[in-house]
Each structure stands twice: as C-alpha cells, then as structure tokens.
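Researcher: Please generate the 3D structure of the following complex. Treat every line as part of one assembly.
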Amino acid sequence: MLVELRPTEKLRDHNNSVVGAVLGSILHAVEDDTLDLSRLRIVCDWIQYRKNFRDPIEIRPILDPSGRGSVEIAVDLRRVAGKDADLEGEITRALARRQDARRLYLESWCPTTRSLIWSFNALYWKHLALWETVSGRSYEQALPGGQSDARNTAGARETILELFSIWDQLAARRALPDQLHVLELGVGNGNQARVWLDEFVRLDREQGRDYYRRLHYLMGDYSPHLLEMARNNVQKHADHVSGLVLDAMAPSKTLGFLKYKAFFVYISNVYDNLPTDEIARINGHNYQVETRAHLRLEDAERIAASVRTNLEDLPDLIMKLLRLGPELVAETYRDKFEDVLGAVRFWSDLWDALGLEERYVPLQPLDTYEIAPGANGEIMRSILEANGDLRMHVSNGAVASFIDTLPLLHPHGFIQCHDLFVTDVEQYATGFRGPGKYDGSVVNWGNGPLLEAIGGRRGFIVDFRKFAHRAGSNIVTMTARVRE
Amino acid sequence: MILPTTVVGSYSVPEWLERAKTDYHQQRISGAYLREIYDVAIKAAIKDQERAGIDIVSDGELRRDNDIDYFLERLPGVEIPHRAKSHYYDYYEAVVHRPIPCDDELPAMGLVEDFRFTRRQTDRAIKFSFTGPFSLSKRVRNEAYSSDADLMLAFAKILNREAKLLAQAGATFLQIDEPFLAGYPEQVELAVKAINAVVEGVDVEWAAHICYGNRHARPAWEGHYDFLFPAILEAHVDQLVLEFARKGYDDLALFERYHPPFKLGLGVIDVKNPDVETAELVASRIEKALAILPPDRIYVNPDCGLRHMPTQVAIEKLQAMSAGASLVRDKIFGRAAVHA
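Model: Done. Output below.
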C-alpha cells in the first residue's frame, strides 16, 4: 500500500487528525473487500475549489500493463474533515460504486482534453452575457480578488518602458518597423487593454518618444461578447486598436500576417482555462488519466424533472444544449424551457452537478502521444523520469497556444503571461492543481516546467516570477523571450 | 553552366538524428556510434540533393550541432569547461584565457576529413561552408585579448590555415558564414577585415553568406542589407549569398546602387516556412535578380540552411528550386520555344 499525502503545508495549519481518521476508516472499510492491499494507492488532496468535479472519495482503477489491475482511493481531505462519523460509510459507498455506480454517464472514457467539460467551458465564453444575467455577477467578479491582476498600472508601466528601450535600440540601427504591433490574447472585457493603452500614451508623451503614433494594438478573444465590451472600453484608442475573434490555441490561424512582427504578446488568465490531459508516473510506468463526465443519479433525476424530461432523454438534451447554445435550445424545446433564461438555469444546474470519474490507462511510448501540434510526449520524458511517482497536467491547450504564438514574435519581442502556473514539478506532489470550476469555466494550473522545456527547444528562455504588483496573489508572471 | 543551383550548407536534421546527438551529449551513446550515424546520414543527404537536381552539393553539415560549436571545439586555445548539453542544439559556453597560438605545428581542425568524406560520395561539385571569425568570436568570452577584434583576427588566421588545407585537398568552393553579422551592423568593416584574413592566399571560389539568422527557424534580427554597404565592397570574396525569399527582393536595388563586383547567391527558398514554393515562383524570383545582374553572376540557393525543415519538405523545396532554375534557363536559351 502506498499513501500519498499532498497538502502537507495545509495540514500544518489544520488539525491533521483527519488523515489518521481517513486512513483508519479506509483500512476498516476494505477489510471485507477483495482489494489487493499490497497494490492499493491512497492519495489525499485538499481541493481548494469549492466547486469541482469530484466526490469526497473517488475510486480510480489503474489498468496495469501486466494485466494486474490495482486501485487508487482519492480523498478530498477538505470535504471529509469533520465527517468522521460517516467517513467509513462514505468510503464503503465509494467502493460499492464499482458495482453500482448510481451515476448517469454522459460520455465514454476519454483523455480529459476530449471530455465534454470543455464543451461546457466553450459554452460559457460564447454565451457569457446570458450566464452573467442569471448569475447576477460579471465573470471578473468571480475571479479570486474580484478583478483580474492584468489591470495593474505598475505592471503595464514596466512592460511599456521595456518596449521603449527595445524600440530605441532598433531605431538607432534603422531597424524599427513603421508599425509597432502589440497583441493581447484573451482580452476579457478590455480593462487591461484600456489601462495599458492609457499608460502607454501617458509615458509616450512624458518621454517624448512618439511611438503611440505607430502603435497597433490587436485584441483577440474567443468570446464575441467580451470582444465587443473590450472595443467599447478602449473606444478612445480606436484608431490604434483592432479586435479579432480567434482561437487562443491557434492564434496564427487568424494572425498569420503578424509573423515575426509582434513586439509584445500579453496573455492573462487564458492558459488555465484551456483543455488539458493529465499524465501520471506510477511505479516506473507512464499512464494517461482518462475521464468520463457524469451526474450523480439523484442530481440527474432532479435536473431531468426540472425540465420535464426523463432520465433516458436527459443526455440527449444536454448534448443539444452544448451544440446549439441556450437560445436555440430554448426555442427548440419550448415545452421544457419557459424562456432563454430557463435554459441557462438548466445549464447552470448541470454545471454545478457535473462530475468526472477517472482511471489510469497505460501510455507507451511517449513519442506517439501528441501534446499539441509540433510537440510530442518525448519532451516530457526528463520530467517524468526524474521525479518518482508523479501526476501532472500536460496543459495541451496552453502548449498549443504557446507554440503557435512564438512565431508571431519579432526577434526582439517577448510574451508575458499572467496566470496560474506550477513552477516546479515538486508542486504537483504538494497541492491540487485542478481541474476546478471557476464560475462556469474550468480551471487548471499551467505546467510551467513543461512550457519552459518546450520554449527552450525553440530557442526561448521561459521564466516564472510571482506576480509582483499585488500581495497574496496566486498569479505568476511567465515571460518568454529569445535566448540567443 | 549559368544559374547553377546550390545549397547554403545545412540540410534537414531528422528527429532521430537530433535524439542521437542529444544522447551522445548525455553519454548514452558513444562517439564512435554517432560518427557511423553521421556517415550514413550524410550519404543520404547528398543523395537527396543529387536527386533533387542540385548542381553544387554539401554534406548538409550534419556532423555539426549548430553553427558554432563544431568549430569552437576544434579551434586551438578555446576552452569549453562543460561539454554536456541537455539538448544538442544548445550552444557551449566557451572562453579564451590566453592568446591563441598559430603555427603549422598545431593540429588541424579536421575539416579536411569532412571534405574528403563528401568528395568520396559524389561526383558533383561541392560547396564547403564554415562559420566565420566574426560570428565565432561573438560566442566566446574573451579573456585573452584587449579587443574582440584581436580575437577575431586570431580565429581568422587559424581558419585561413584550414582553408589552405581544404584547397590542397581539392576544395574549389568555400563559403564563410557570418550568421551574427546582421546583429552588429556597426561592425561590418571589422568583419570584412576578418573575412579577408581568412581568404588570403587561398585560390578558390569564395562566398560569404550573411543572413538574418536561422536559429530555431526564426530570424534573429530584422532590417535591410544596406548595413553591409559600402564596407562589404572591400571583401575579397567572389560572391555574396543573401536571404531574400522570406523578406522580399527590395534589397536587390543595392546591387544597382553600389555595383558590387560580386556574384550573387540568390535566396529563392524560404527556410523558415514549410510551405513548398512552386517552380514558377522560384523562376519569378530569379527573374527579379536577372533584371539587375547578368545570369552568369547569379547562383541559385535557399535563403539559408535547411536544417529546420522536415526532410520531405527540404527535398521538395530543393526540387522546386531546381525546376525553377531550369525554367529560367530554358527561357534564356529559348528552349521553351523549341519544345513548343
């Protein structure tokens, strides 16, 4: 038996008797079970996201390449703390789910990147205005701290002055292009763009550089609603701003004209919201985490009843919602939804109840696993093989975005990204890094060491620093610039 | 032959070769094993060029990790404290502590063996390239000389000796690559002085290749070739090999303005973009140069080395280049009319 206790720092601050209680209850509960204790893994997390995809106790099959399967019992210590009385019962019920899951499955087992949670995620950004109407708050208010760290004047000033310095040097060599391109991916409501542009104008005037005249600020976002808000927000800079609906995972598709021209690419709170797989190293073998989305049977029955449908028809209605969106689905199923907002409430109920079951399947060989176009799993080898047992995110969407953004950079350009990042592989063994639910979207921490390795292979130095301009923020600043 | 086709030097490095190189640096395979892999890979690279119709071929520079390290580890007096690399393409950190000795007793750099190996594999003409003293000096910490210019000239003397050995071994076409020069436009005069020291007394066709960098298939600098002029006019070389396909052909006007005595190695293939050019596009690019230079002063080549292109893409690009040159030759000699 192997016990992996991840939230070591958290348990220092709390009564850690919960761990003893959990282990004792598990041992007691498995006495009557057929589990092979010598191959049992117990993994204890402290899931900081109050809304997430897991039950407090989950049972995960590990499909062994040798055919001798084993099991991982995954415990969310935060939610089982204080439940001592029923802990054993909870574990027994979780074990019993292997025979009778009492879950309505919405998809077959698949790598997490292909799970329908990402369809929910896309739906959120596409129909954000409706979601905000029902939730009664803007997406930015849902962020920890109530606003994005991107709206920080001091941070903006730092990058603008760096750009001035680069442009001064190029101008001295007659190598400064006529247009100075800056790109923001994931522009949100445009607050960051406004702060940045206002500060740019102020510094440009103060220092007499006259770069604003040549500045072209490109705003890209997946959400037309946010892009429209952003456009309105930067109205006074309209002559210098263009807005483009684009896929953050493939910016070059839309921005091919920008190749080698962008001096500064700014990305805030995007990578943590892009699809990711998870890979695990267990006992010297590599595994892929497969997932399948489900609803607990009692939740499924309640939600089905709320839209006057039965359990069998519920999955089909959910797929329709994901494909058509709330407006069209409300129009199509007038017998089930009073209006569009009724369809949004259905969506919101589903999202709250949505869970992910997990299992580990063997992954071999690494070079046949595609992280993103242009990057295969071989690049993960040194990380996986140097760190013992490990479960980490692959950050496929972030990697795809990163790889596809690099060619846009001018030889003297750089990327700055504010987001949630694991900056040391060790952090996977000491904390929970997702997936969680942020409002109606998915959140996962980006795999910093992997991005660093991928950037390194492409001639970039990728470094990570704690966000310097707000104390207590979890946000990390990632910077990528040409190494030599 | 007019409008001969050639390469700049490096050829596609397949992923398996990259892995073998990295494995060598991490002591997972031996040097002897890697040398055998190189021999086979170079034979294949030469065959690919021949089949693509390239008139003047190279060994693809496949033995070299990058444009710098192969030379630094062979230059006397250059110390490389740590030779392990996490990835083969990374540069070494190199230092020169003491002035570099230069006499005939010092061992040669071994480039002659590389040339001879290539010579044995093909009957075609060969271009043999090596990185010039200017760029080499930019990757070395100079603790021996009071100025970087002195370090550069010391490297130039060693390279001159090596060039003489190459000429004695039968090399007829040598190229000096200066991939870093575009980053130091104010130092062109110095670079030219160093180039002239390399070519002195070596009677071969000399080319100088100056581009905007091709590290990781990205330009390292941007700008225009006007920084080369007029200083480059003093270079004792026969041709300039320049990058145009990616950037456009506006800088051809510099040949009209300055009337340099050189032939032009005309870049007609973009080596940073995997989209394969058509023969017609290549032909139109050659015709742009023909509006300014006579055909006997133009060599047709890619913008830079093909090392970052996948092998199949590299082959198709070279085929397109050959076919494009043929189209123009046919036009010049009126063959199209004869065929019709």
